[in-house]
Specification:
The chain is built from seven helices and seven strands. It is of the alpha+beta class. It has a five-stranded mixed sheet with strand order 1-2-3-4-5, with no helix packed on it. Strands 6-7 form a two-stranded antiparallel ribbon. Strand 2 and strand 3 form a beta hairpin. The longest helix is centred in the last third of the chain and has 30 residues.
C-alpha cells in the first residue's frame, strides 16, 4: 500500500532533483509496476506533502509489516510529524483478512491485518524529520565536536514525544540507543554540516524503530558516511523469531484446553449449587 500526499508538479521539478534521486525514483516505479498485479489497487492516504510505503508479508505463520516513511519537514513541525505518524498507523491501508482462524493465527489485538499495528512484528524507518529543540546551531555543533551526544538526545523531538506524550503513535516502538552523530543536514559531497544560507542545525532525522515484544531484537544500529546526499543513511540488523503452527498439535492442545475449561466450569457450577442450598 502506498500512503502519499500530493506533490506540486511544475516545470522546475526536475531541476531540483538530483540525478541519483531521479534514477532511484524511476527504479522504484519500474519495480512496483513489475511486481504489483495490475488489478491490485493502491490505498492512498493524503498526509500533507509526505507519506509512507507499507509492505506486509507472512513468514511461516507470523505476520511482518515494514513501513518506510517521510514525515513533515521543518524545525517547528513536531506536532505535524506526530499527526503524520498517527495517520499512517491508524489508516486501514492494507487488505483485510476475512478468515477468522487466519486472523487469530497471524495478527494481534483482534486485528484483521488492515492496519500496521495488527501485525506481530513491525519495523518503521525513514526520514522522520525530527529535530533537536531549543538549541542554537552553534551549541549543537559544539556538542557534536565534544562527543556530547547525550546532551543533544535529551532535546531530540522524537525521544521527547515518546517520554512526554502518552498518545504518541511511536510510544510503544523501540529504538536502539543512538551512538552516532546526527545524520542531517550535510553539504553534498563532503562532511560539513549545512553551510547554506539557511544554516540548518544538525539532527537525527533518519531513524529505525520496531515493535514485537519477544519476537524481534535489534543487533546493531549505525550510520554510513555516504556523501551523495544531504543525509547520512542508517541501517539496522535484526533477529526475528517466527512461529510455525502444526495443525494436528494445535487441535490436540485446543481439545485439552476445552476439557480443562469444562472441568473448571463444572466445578464452579457445583460449588454455586452448594452455596445456594
Amino acid at each position: 500500500s502506498l500512503l502519499k500526499g500530493s506533490m506540486r508538479r511544475d516545470g522546475s521539478e526536475h531541476e531540483h532533483m538530483s540525478r541519483q534521486y531521479r534514477d532511484w525514483r524511476d527504479h522504484l516505479v519500474r519495480s512496483i509496476e513489475d511486481h504489483m498485479p495490475m488489478n491490485e489497487s493502491y490505498a492512498v492516504l493524503h498526509t500533507a506533502s509526505m507519506g509512507a510505503l507499507i509492505i506486509r508479508f507472512r513468514f511461516d505463520d507470523s505476520s511482518i509489516c515494514l513501513v518506510n516513511c517521510h514525515l513533515a519537514a521543518g524545525q517547528n513541525q513536531t506536532m505535524h510529524r506526530n499527526n503524520d505518524v498517527t495517520a499512517i498507523l491508524e489508516a486501514f491501508a492494507l487488505p483485510a483478512e476475512h478468515d477468522r482462524t487466519l486472523c487469530s493465527e497471524l495478527f494481534v489485538g483482534g486485528g484483521d491485518g488492515s492496519m500496521v499495528l495488527d501485525h506481530e512484528i513491525c519495523i518503521l524507518n525513514g526520514d522522520l524529520n525530527y529535530r533537536i529543540d531549543t538549541m542554537s546551531r552553534e551549541i549543537v555543533l559544539k556538542a557534536i565536536q565534544n562527543n556530547n551526544l547525550s546532551k543533544l538526545l535529551e532535546r531530540d523531538q522524537l525521544l521527547v514525544s515518546k517520554r512526554k506524550n502518552p498518545t504518541f503513535g511511536l510510544k510503544l516502538f523501540v529504538e536502539c540507543p543512538i551512538t552516532f552523530n546526527p545524520t542531517y543536514k550535510y553539504d553534498v559531497g563532503c562532511d560539513t554540516y549545512d553551510s547554506s544560507e539557511k544554516h540548518r542545525a544538525p539532527a537525527w532525522c533518519d531513524r529505525i524503530l520496531y515493535r514485537g515484544t519477544g519476537k524481534i531484537k535489534q543487533m546493531d544500529y549505525r550510520r554510513h558516511d555516504l556523501r551523495i546526499s544531504d543525509h547520512r543513511p542508517v541501517t539496522g540488523s535484526f533477529k526475528i523469531r517466527v512461529k510455525t503452527i502444526i495443525p494436528a498439535k494445535r487441535e490436540k492442545v485446543w481439545q485439552e484446553c476445552q476439557r480443562r475449561f469444562e472441568a473448571v466450569r463444572h466445578k464452579l457450577e457445583q460449588e454455586a449449587k452448594y452455596e445456594f442450598y
